[in-house]
Specification:
- The complex is a heterodimer of chains A (328) and B (328).
- Helix content of chain A is 48%, strand content 13%.
- By secondary structure, chain A is α/β, with parallel strands linked by helices.
- In chain A, helix 6 packs across helix 7, helix 11 crosses helix 12 and helix 12 runs parallel beside helix 13.
- The N and C termini of chain A lie far apart (63 Å).
- The relative contact order of chain A is 0.12.
- By secondary structure, chain B is of the alpha/beta class.
- Chain B is 36% helix and 23% strand.
- In chain B, strands 3-2-1-4-5 form a five-stranded mixed β-sheet.
- Classes of the chains: A alpha/beta (328), B alpha/beta (328).
- Chains A and B meet through helix 2, helix 13 and helix 14 of A and helix 3 and strand 8 of B.
Chain lengths: 328, 328
């Protein structure tokens, strides 16, 4: 059986259900790199170029973890997933960066994903991938259908309030059931909106277990995945100038939507040091969210250091403040 | 008398404040250098306090804060372990109940706390960069061969403070050397440095915050008249420096302990013998998974008081310790 490796990083967090269903249906075995640990990160830091960002370095580590155990490596060249908006430029260069830095790389499935002109779609992309695996046309068509069904179920579960890891590991159930409703305001429990790239906030290692820490401090955590795409487009459209980064747009759109929901007590924005788009998006977000509503907002930055003390102090101070505000 | 002890162990100083039931300092607050040995500094402080107490004096509550609050809490048996933001806010409000802004600049970190009606509504701490904190002032005073206590007075003699690039202390230092070689006077350079540090603080920590008077300035750097003058000039407002400006964290921790004592019976305080108990600390690398966490263990004779540093919690002594891993 052909083994297709999927590194657990970057857009794995957005498209894994699509890719997993497609390659499984094609008769391949899907191998995912292990969850991030110190060894994976260290390998990535050694291998990647210094001027890239933490998540890209980590992606290198995940690629290295798969070498030797897979026949193909899925690293699509992600340029754009919607008209007139783009993914970060570092994602475009990912297959090239890997080839330049890592010897003995298995063959990459690096089909271009570029929907910026409004012509491409996932079916075409998946078909190209399927042809690389020399599948027949009927099988490819069938695999495409399964893949898109899996992805839309995933989206549905996210919009019903399940956190991404829960939707990925099946905790959300077969068909999207509602997640237990968040507690009402004033109940002594906090509702916190957590913004940031999915590949940062859901990676327990580099986010230093942020979501669990917040939950143990009595907070219900909601992320941008909860917000339907139509709402994100509409909310982000209120900015005076159109944002052309898909991921940044998602964060800003979601942040604005959260501002309009009274239930949220505070907003946390997690970014990784050295991220180009975030240096602008984070500023825009902080300023415009404040104009919308005086919602407590805390930026957090993660980098290669491992000490969680600084993070814990900030989270404690933030939740403390929110609880006192609620009481006062 | 019933007394409440507050302990603040920071990177640079270890402070202890003992309060009477009315919340006034019972003894002169202690400000000791941590010098990289928090346990030693804490024990020294406790011994000094113990020697000044009479027979009827009884500690009825202990609070700990600062970056080593967890450590202090375990060693002393604290009733409250709180983050620095909350502790500093509580102390500032005690001194000036109508305070709306707290500026705190310490040895390695700096923070801003925005208060409205006695509640923390916003705060920020410096990020990974320690530029513009006490350590840098210390370092420059040493380089210029001026005792740090005279630093502030010297800047008061300035006629035309020079402009120094304050964005990064590495740049600031080379700029200062350049100015001094050009023939600028020492007071002008020192005053320029204070202004640069204030600019840095306001642009980083204070960015986007609604800084309104009354303003309280605390932390070790508040001793520096030059910094205070530069802040007043830049903010166009009068700034209050509390009498116990350099131990406000410990003061706040003691106040929190006093509040806590009203809600609980008895105290966890382990007694003054803590000052002479032999504690052993060691750290080791856990081999149970590739994360290779650095675990810290604090022991008193043969009894393990605490362990931390592990991501998964397997070394926690209160939970289910993984006996197999203990036998490494």
């Amino acid at each position: 059986m052909v083994k297709v490796g999927i590194p657990r990083g970057l857009l794995y967090y957005s498209y894994f259900p699509l890719w997993r269903a497609f390659f499984t249906e094609m008769g391949a075995e899907v191998v995912v790199s292990p969850e991030t640990n110190k060894a994976v990160l260290d390998a990535g830091l050694r291998s990647a170029l210094d001027e890239t960002c933490l998540p890209v370095k980590l992606f290198f580590g995940h690629v290295l973890a798969l070498i030797g155990s897979v026949d193909y490596l899925l690293v699509p060249r992600l340029i754009s997933v919607e008209p007139k908006a783009y993914i970060c430029p570092k994602f475009m260069g990912l297959p090239d960066m890997l080839r330049a830095r890592i010897p003995n790389l298995p063959p990459l499935i690096d089909v271009d994903v570029d929907f910026s002109r409004g012509t491409g779609n996932w079916e075409n992309v998946l078909s190209s991938m399927g042809r690389l695996l020399a599948g027949d046309r009927r099988l490819i068509r069938q695999a495409c259908r399964s893949a898109q069904a899996a992805q839309s179920l995933f989206q549905e579960q996210l919009e019903k309030g399940w956190l991404l890891p829960e939707a990925l590991n099946g905790a959300a159930g077969e068909r999207g059931t509602e997640r237990p409703a968040p507690p009402p305001p004033g109940s002594g429990r906090l509702n916190i909106a957590l913004l940031g790239h999915a590949y940062n906030i859901y990676d327990e290692y580099i986010s230093m277990n942020l979501i669990e820490r917040l939950r143990s401090m009595g907070a219900q955590v909601s992320t941008a995945d909860l917000v339907p795409q139509s709402v994100i487009d509409e909310q982000a459209g209120t900015l005076p100038k159109k944002l052309f980064w898909t991921l940044g747009k998602k964060m800003i759109g979601a942040a604005f939507a959260f501002c309009d929901i009274r239930q949220f007590d505070g907003m946390i924005y997690l970014s990784s040091f050295g991220c180009g788009p975030e240096s602008l998006v984070g500023e825009l977000l902080a300023r415009w969210a404040k104009r919308r509503r005086d919602i407590p907002f805390m930026p957090l930055t993660i980098d290669e250091h491992t000490g969680a003390a600084g993070l814990v102090t900030r989270l404690e101070a933030f939740t403390d403040m929110l609880l006192r505000r609620e009481k006062g | 008398m019933e007394l409440y002890l507050g302990i603040d162990i920071g990177s640079v100083s270890t402070n202890l404040v003992l309060l009477d039931p009315l919340g006034e300092p019972y003894l002169a607050p202690l400000y000791l250098r941590t010098q990289g040995q928090p346990i030693k500094a804490l024990q020294k402080g406790l011994a000094i306090i113990r020697d000044q107490l009479g027979k009827g004096d009884l500690v009825c509550g202990v609070g700990a804060t600062g970056s080593a609050r967890q450590l202090a809490g375990v060693l002393v048996g604290a009733d409250v372990v709180k983050n620095e933001i909350s502790a500093h806010a509580v102390a500032a409000l005690r001194i000036l109940p109508e305070a709306r802004t707290v500026i705190e600049i310490g040895g390695q970190d700096s923070k801003i706390i925005i208060l409205r009606d006695g509640i923390v509504v916003d705060f920020a701490m410096n990020t990974v960069c320690a530029a513009g904190t006490g350590s840098f002032l210390d370092q420059q005073a040493f380089r210029l061969n001026i005792p740090i206590d005279e630093f502030g007075a010297l800047s008061g003699q300035a006629c035309t403070p020079v402009r120094i690039a304050g964005r990064c202390t590495v740049f600031a230092e080379s700029d200062m050397i350049h100015k001094q070689q050009m023939g600028h006077t020492l007071p002008d350079i020192v005053a320029g440095l204070c202004e640069a540090m204030v600019r840095n603080y306001l642009n980083n920590v204070g960015k986007g915050k609604d800084i309104e008077p009354p303003i309280v300035f605390q932390g070790g750097v508040a001793a520096n008249q030059g910094m205070r003058a530069a802040l007043e000039k830049s903010l166009q407002a009068e700034i209050a420096v509390p009498r116990y400006y350099n131990v406000m964290g410990a003061y706040g921790a003691a106040l929190l302990a006093r509040d806590q004592a009203r809600e609980q019976v008895g105290t966890g305080f382990r007694g003054w013998q803590v000052s002479t108990m032999p504690f052993q600390q060691r750290s080791f690398e856990c081999k149970a998974c590739p994360n290779a966490c650095e675990v810290i263990e604090i022991k008193q004779e043969r009894e393990v008081l605490a362990r931390w540093g592990d991501r998964c919690g397997r070394w926690g002594i209160t939970g289910e310790a993984d006996q197999a891993a203990l036998q490494h």
